[in-house]
Design brief:
CATH class of the largest domain in chain A: Mainly Alpha
Number of domains of chain B: 2
Shape of chain B: elongated
Radius of gyration of chain A: 36 Å
CATH architecture of the largest domain in chain A: Up-down Bundle
Structural class of chain A: mainly alpha
Structural class of chain B: alpha+beta
Distance between the termini of chain B: 67 Å
Helix content of chain B: 10-25%
Strand content of chain B: 35-45%
Distance between the termini of chain A: 69 Å
CATH superfamily of the largest domain in chain B: Rieske [2Fe-2S] iron-sulphur domain
Radius of gyration of chain B: 27 Å
Largest sheet of chain A: 2 strands, antiparallel
Number of strands of chain B: 11
Oligomer: heterodimer
Strand order of the largest sheet of chain B: 2-3-4-9
CATH superfamily of the largest domain in chain A: Cytochrome Bc1 Complex, Chain C
Order of helices and strands of chain A: HEHHHHHHHEHHHHHEHHHHHHH
Strand content of chain A: under 5%
Number of helices of chain B: 1
Shape of chain A: elongated
Number of strands of chain A: 3
CATH topology of the largest domain in chain B: Rieske Iron-sulfur Protein
Number of domains of chain A: 2
Number of helices of chain A: 20
Order of helices and strands of chain B: HEEEEEEEEEEE
Strand order of the largest sheet of chain A: 1-2
Largest sheet of chain B: 4 strands, antiparallel
Chain lengths: 572, 174
């Protein structure tokens, strides 16, 4: 079989014609880095194809599809983790490749072109990472991209054009994602693939550069060098896998939300530039553009200036020292940025809050799915989310038991149930009821019914409770309650639809959704508290109808809720 | 000879490492790609769908087309509300009997319409005709129209939406 295949290939000049490749100066572990980078890019390709089978590049769906892979698809976290942290591994191994090349003097004539191609490739790999980071469309990727595009937009003359082309128009949206997606999975792979092909072909043609000037015996590439490459690849993969498993894939922040501030941080390998911008102060935009140009310039110039007779590292100390200095500055800036973040306690608090939002968003996405209106609306899939968030922002100050400035009745779980009505009847001016209102200090305040006897009290409670539309009403009690109401309440109150009482609020539909909507909309209406008896603002001028209805729905929900139910819900 | 043996061992070792590495990378990606195959990625309605008061369908009237709208459909990561799933033809066949026929043609899935002039159902794609009770009359369809389960709860008509396999004589849920 093997013989037949060999013969087939040889007949066509495809095998056995060229001499086996040799490694001048012998195989070495120093030569493995380029191969490891190529392997890691292959890892990106394989995992990237699997991820592309799930990813949706649209502003409404992108985050949700990434969260689906991370939290719901089998081994999705592992594949995504390999893809994300694989990019970091590429940056690390590429740096080692660069250092080895410089140390051995492999950039020197005649290998300048290989070196320059390598620098170009390094820049493209970084661009590849940037285009990938935004695709997750979470707070981290979204805000980091805003900063990156902002820097690019500061380029003289063409800056604005770059911004518009990158974003696909005037602002972030669907076209931003489709563009970065096309760059990330089509344009950059083809470009990098072609340049790596050229880089490897040239490097192979010129052969490796042994350390120092002494001539060493050669060895066949296969299997001597190949085995070393394979071992290095296995080690790199083992380290990558161990790391990805230890952090369970890659992080994912809450969905991108332009209205939610976020402490944007770049990918760790851009930390040096990030710190430089901070240090540059008002000159930050210039620093962000000039620093990379200087780094690229220094690297590109190395083969042009390092032209001495010897390749030995100790005879090229000025150049290697310069390169070491450059790397030390980059490393130092990176450390500086990380440590100053680590020391910032206010930042830690904000990061903690953002992390909680991320956990909540991902839990809700897993449990309820993400609304078709967009991933940021996932928060509203939580029960009563809208009503609860409105209550927390608009009502809590005057109605929460723990509020220092409470001015109205406490609104808490059980609000409007039988026990609540009973407490209200027995002592309307109790601290938990109208005790803190303007009304309680006036003549118009309701008199307590503490002396009312048991069956009458229960019957009128049932009557008022039935107004809410609750389904667990005892009909006989309720009907008996009408007579009690006539004797005890109807002098001041009314129970007919839309009717105010003679001197007190109308009670039709008391504590029902319609009632709450009407009350919240205009508590000062004659139907409810009347113009001079209430300090509560009119919310029909502050909230939309849908918002007021969400509040009314929440208040109805509170009637049957317990404190435990409320605590079990997320902080919205 | 010793050198040749060594090289042979190195070659086997290289291939073994290469195979292991390849497997470690391709494995998780293939598992991920296979994930949706074993899942209900797009949910259907879990409860019967409300079509409104049963009395709106009068005895002797022509079949009426009703949209079948699911309150919530989960599609992988998305949860969409009020999703139009299809249509059904509903008719009162006797004073206390209602009948619903799926508007999905059992032949190849086109939308079957009511031909008022002929007094029967017509699929516009391949001209299959069905009687008012859904029996196959003419055309290429392998079977009659598919009846959908109906029930009346508190005077309201409720329909259970089912999709059937197309292009076969037997009626099997898809």
């Amino acid at each position: 079989m093997k013989g037949a295949l060999d013969r087939f290939l040889r007949d066509r000049g495809l095998a056995g014609t060229s001499r086996p490749a040799t490694i001048v100066g012998g195989a070495s572990f120093a030569y493995v880095f380029g191969t490891v980078v190529t392997f890691l890019i292959a890892v990106e390709a394989v995992t990237g194809i699997a991820l592309a089978a799930f990813y949706a590049p649209s502003a409404t769906d992108a985050w949700a599809s990434v969260a689906y892979v991370q939290d719901q698809a089998q081994l999705g976290w592992l594949v995504r983790g390999l893809h994300y942290h694989g990019a970091s591994a590429i940056v690390i191994v590429t740096s080692l490749h660069l250092v080895q090349t410089a140390l051995y003097g492999a950039y020197r004539k005649p290998r300048e072109l290989v070196w320059w191609l390598g620098i170009l490739l390094m820049l493209l790999l970084l661009a590849w990472a940037v285009t990938g980071f935004v695709l997750r469309w979470d707070q981290a990727g979204f805000w980091a991209n805003k900063v990156e595009v902002g820097i690019a937009a500061a380029t003289p003359v063409i800056g604005d054009a770059i911004r518009k082309v990158a974003l696909g128009g005037n602002d972030y949206g669907n076209l931003t994602l489709t563009r970065f997606y096309a760059l990330h999975v089509m344009i950059l792979p083809v470009l990098v693939g072609a340049l790596i092909g050229a880089h490897i072909a040239l490097a192979r043609k010129l052969g490796p550069t042994p350390l120092g000037d002494r001539v060493q015996p050669s060895a066949p590439r296969w299997p001597e060098q190949t085995l070393r490459n394979a071992i290095a690849i296995a080690v790199a993969l083992a380290l990558l896998l161990a790391y990805v498993i230890s952090v369970h894939g890659a992080d994912l922040a809450a969905p991108a939300d332009p209205s939610q501030a976020y402490d944007a941080r770049p990918l760790w390998y851009f930390r040096a530039l990030f710190e430089l911008r901070q240090l540059a102060g008002s000159a930050e935009k210039a620093a962000a553009l000039i620093a990379p140009a200087i780094i690229i310039g220094v690297l590109a110039a190395l083969p042009l200036v390092d032209r001495g007779p010897s390749r030995a590292p100790h005879r090229r100390l000025p150049y290697l020292g310069g390169l070491a200095g450059l790397l030390a500055v980059l490393g130092g800036l990176t450390l500086l940025s990380l440590t100053s973040d680590a020391r910032d306690e206010e930042l830690a608090k904000r990061v903690d809050k953002a992390d909680q939002r991320a956990v909540l968003a991902r839990k809700l996405a897993r449990d309820n799915g993400v609304p078709a209106t967009g991933a940021a609306d996932v928060f509203f899939t939580s029960p009563m989310a809208k009503g609860r968030s409105l209550f927390a922002t608009r009502c809590k100050g005057c109605h929460d038991a723990n509020s220092k400035d409470r001015k109205g009745p406490i609104i808490a779980p059980g609000h409007g149930n039988r026990a609540w009505i009973e407490g209200m009847l027995k002592n309307p001016d109790d601290d938990a009821y109208w005790g803190r209102t303007k009304l309680s200090r006036t003549e118009g305040s309701m008199k307590p019914f503490s002396e009312m006897k048991s069956p009458d009290l229960e019957d009128v409670i049932e009557l008022l409770y039935a107004e809410s539309g609750a389904t667990d009403v005892a009909a006989t009690k309720r009907d008996r309650g009408q007579a009690v109401f006539e004797t005890a309440c109807s002098d001041c109150h009314a129970r007919e639809d839309g009717q105010a009482g003679a001197s007190a609020p109308g009670l039709a539909g008391l504590n029902s959704r319609d009632y709450y909507l009407s009350f919240v909309s205009n508590p000062k209406s004659a139907l409810h508290m009347g113009r001079d008896k209430s300090q509560m603002p009119r919310f029909d001028r502050e909230l939309t109808l849908l918002e007021r209805d969400a509040l009314a729905e929440y208040l109805v929900w509170l009637r049957t809720a317990t404190a435990k139910d409320l605590a079990a819900l997320d902080p919205y | 000879m010793a050198d040749e043996d060594r090289r042979k061992f190195l070659k086997v070792a290289t291939c073994a490492i290469g195979g292991g590495v390849g497997l470690a990378i391709a494995g998780p990606s293939l598992v991920l790609l296979a994930d949706p195959a074993g899942k209900v990625t797009v949910t259907g309605p879990t409860a019967p769908l409300d079509l409104g008061p049963a009395e709106q369908f009068r005895a002797g009237a022509e079949p009426r087309r009703v949209d079948v709208v699911a309150p919530v459909i989960k599609d992988a990561w998305t949860s969409a509300r009020n999703v139009l799933l299809g249509a059904a033809w509903v008719r009162r066949t006797a004073p206390d009997t209602l009948m619903a026929l799926s508007a999905v043609c059992p032949h190849l899935g086109c939308a079957v319409g009511w031909d008022a002039a002929a007094g029967n159902f017509l699929c516009p794609c391949h001209d299959s005709r069905f009687s008012p009770t859904g029996q196959k009359l003419t055309g290429p369809s392998e079977r009659g129209m598919d009846e959908l389960p109906l029930q009346v709860v508190d005077g309201r008509l409720q329909l259970s939406w089912v999709r059937f396999k197309l292009g076969q004589t037997t009626r099997e849920p898809a």
